[in-house]
Amino acid sequence: MEGVLSNLERRIWRLLQVLAWAAGMFIWGALFIDPRLGLHLLWNVLIPIAPALFVIAPGAWRNVCPLGSMALAPHHIGWSQQKRLSAVWRGRLFFAAFVLLIVVAPFRKVLLDTNGPLIGALLFAVGLVAIGMGLVLSQKSGWCSSLCPVYPVELLYGSQPVVSVPNAHCHTCLRCVSPCSESTVGLTPRTAVETKLGRATGVALTGCFPGFVWGWYNVPMFSGWDGVRHLHIAYGIPYAAASLSLVVYVTLCGVRPKQEDLITGIFATAAISTYYWFRLPPVFGIGDPDAAMIVDMSPWLPTWSATALRVIALGVFGWLMLARTNRRRAWQTQFNSL
Ligand code: SF4
Asked: Is the peptide bond before 282 cis (omega within 30 degrees of 0)?
């Protein structure tokens, strides 16, 4: 039966969940004990991989995300009250997730990228909120499909996943949210939450994100408390670029309403391509080696390799998100009972 896990598959996904959780705990502990290592693993290894994973297999990430596993732990051990989240409140939480995303991301340049204990404490607080919501609310409505600030980005980049995987958290469907983010084909930030506020949040996220990402990369990294004195730069540049981008998006959708899906796809592709345009070369030690290096290949790479990497990323995401045919897949394979 499609979407129903065999015992062996279930055990494999449980093992992957435990391993991902242990890796998450290792990174979290390192933020306090060895901040340099913790910050490197969090910002230079985990976060740069995540957007590509959202495009290719968002369902796999949703199965193993350490924070998601913590939010769903009360459900799995029978401690959740399984209360239903109303559509209105889901819209509000989705909006709050978007606000969290655009408030916290610029703060990375101010303090979070350089202060391990601070981001560790913030993650601890976020973990408590996720578990607390999981104790009260049903399944993924408690965090993964409502307040998680990564959820809007998963929707933006993952509307046409390359692969679907079985749902390893929901063994029976409690219809926690509607439409189900895991099993509905082609959801976007505009269609995932069916309230006025939810749709407006989706429009705002889709429209502003390419500019926001571009603006974020054009803010310098501040060290120590110097960033607090430059909040206007850390927030002003991404917000100004995001506003411009949003105006262009809303105008295009207004002029070409029948092309809304295509315009949305183009903006999603523009956002992720902008992200890797800046992120990819430093990963291989090209440009500023302190920026985000994972492996230093600069001695072997020609000077034009940064441009080549960027063009390849643009081509790959353009193809995966816009040009690929036969793209009708949900994040996760569907329950028969849905
Ligand atoms: S499969 Fe059902 S219980 Fe699981 S996330 Fe979707 S709607 Fe919620």
From this structure: no
Tell me how crowded residue 316 is: count the other CB atoms within 10 A of its CB.
15
The C-alpha atoms of residue 119 and residue 47 are separated, in whole angstroms, by 14
33: Cβ–Cβ under 8 A, 6 or more apart, which residues?
A: none
Upper half-sphere CA count for residue 127 (Cβ side, 13 Å): 16
Residue owning the nearest CA to atom 8 of ligand 1 = 176
58, 144 Cβ separation under 8 angstroms: no
Choice between 284 and 163, residue whose per-residue pLDDT is larger: 163
Count Cα neighbours of 22 within 13 Å in the Cβ-side half-sphere.
6
Q: How far is the CA of 165 from the centre of ligand 1 (A)?
A: 14
pTM: 0.94
> Ligand 1: residues within 6 Å at CB?
139-140, 167, 170, 173-177, 180, 182-183, 335
Whether residue 32 contacts residue 117, with contact meaning beta carbons closer than 8 Å, is answered with yes
**Average of per-residue pLDDT across 232-259:** 97
Q: Give the burial string for 183-218 (b: 16+ CB within 10 Å, else e).
A: bbeebbbbbbbebebbbbbbbbbbbbbbbbbbbbbe
pLDDT at position 17 over 60: yes
156: left (phi over 0), alpha (psi -120 to 50) or beta: alpha
Q: Which atom of ligand 1 has the smallest separation from the CA of 167? A: 1
Ramachandran sector of residue 224 (left: φ over 0; alpha: ψ -120 to 50; beta: rest): left
Q: pLDDT per residue over 79-104, tens digit each? A: 999 999 999 999 999 999 999 999 99
For ligand 1, atom 7, the nearest C-alpha belongs to 175
Residue nearest ligand 1's atom 4 by CA: 170
